[in-house]
Amino acid sequence: MKFLKRWDQELLSILRIVAAFMFTLHGTQKIFGFPIDARYAWDLWTLSPGAAGMLEIVLGPLLLVGLFTRPAAFVLSGLMAFAYFIAHAPQSFYPIANGGENAVLYCFVFLYFAAAGGGKWSLDRLRKS
């Protein structure tokens, strides 16, 4: 366990980078139809894909590079909680049954980043130096 403890800040950064990259892809799909077309037409004035897509495209890359990590992650955590309770929870109590497992997982991963910060490899760490 000492080995893992020694690498905890690097692993936090890797988790942040991978999660933010995967999350940003949801935004690029909704707004730009990349890497695959969205299932619905884009409209800025809708919750999803409009407002949610814009938050994913703006805050996702900030999280990716670790800039303003805590506030960006906090907002995204709230976005995912909101998405879960608005879109998924009414269908079923169980996330696996209502398709909301990604929303739940992102919500809690982002909440962790809001508390823990961006890790060793983040622009926030460089700004404080």
UniProtKB/TrEMBL annotation:
The keyword Cell membrane applies. The keyword Cytoplasm does not apply. InterPro entries: DoxX, DoxX-like_oxidoreductase. It is a multi-pass membrane protein. Keywords: Cell membrane, Membrane, Transmembrane, Transmembrane helix. It is found in: Cell membrane. The chain crosses the membrane at residues 12-32, 44-65, 72-91, 103-123. PANTHER family: BLL4328 PROTEIN (PTHR33452:SF4), OXIDOREDUCTASE CATD-RELATED (PTHR33452). Belongs to the DoxX family. This is Putative oxidoreductase. The lineage of its organism: Bacteria, Pseudomonadati, Pseudomonadota, Gammaproteobacteria, Arenicellales.
